[in-house]
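Shapes recur. Our protein:

. . .
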Amino acid sequence: MCFDVANHVLPLPGCYNCCMRCLGGIPYTSLVATLMCFSGVALFCGCGHQALTETERLIEYYFARNLQDYITLAYIIQYFQYIIYALASFFFLYCILLLAEGFYTTSAAKQTFGEFRSTVCGRCLGTTFIAVTYALAVLWLVVYAFSALPVFFFYNMASTCHIIDELSDSTSNINQLCIDARQYGLLPWNAMPGKACGMTLSTTCKTKEFQLTYDLFIAAFAGAGITLLALLTYVMSTTYNFAVLRYLGRKGIAVRLPAPGNHAALLEGAAAQTQG
């Protein structure tokens, strides 16, 4: 049920206008960016966490025989998993703040809630969100680049296994085709064997652990890309919101809810204020 400023029930056209004002007060760009950020971070953190666990198992079973050879990698993986927990919590809270800022600065929402003036605090808050979101987008671009490294490693491994399968019946030199985990910094150079070659490598690629880990890293890479796109969308929306606040601050525009039948007077007053 819709009410006017005197708390009287409005007829059907008034209810329609009220509903349109409510729907118009939704910051759709910020809402879409929030959904993208939630889904991207969930995909990156969830799949990345499990992919790191499966990677540790692959290194333990097929590339290292001594516990001391991969104990450092195990600690690094554990630290990265803790970082993933922190990232998930941080992005959840920050996306909620950006969505709230989008609701606050949407021009349709200002019209819905009546008189509004751009304040110095509001402009400072908008500037802070722009700077922080831009810095996050740059930092996440680095995360996005680094998330491609495990995908590159597993892609090379799968390609080498495909070549081994094709040459297994025609040549005996397949043992020269290897994947050395030490070259990628996963193991120290004194780790034994540190690499998988020939049919051993081909057998490794056919295991469920390898296929699962490969798919998880691809999903985590896609999640990082979605999160980066969401941050860039946030940068554009916060910049637009800040521009609106600056415009309102310079013009001193204040919007009031019109009383029934005073639409013409409101338009005349707004035109006179703009000209002044």
The first strand starts at residue 178 and ends at 180. Residues 30-91+115-256 form one domain.
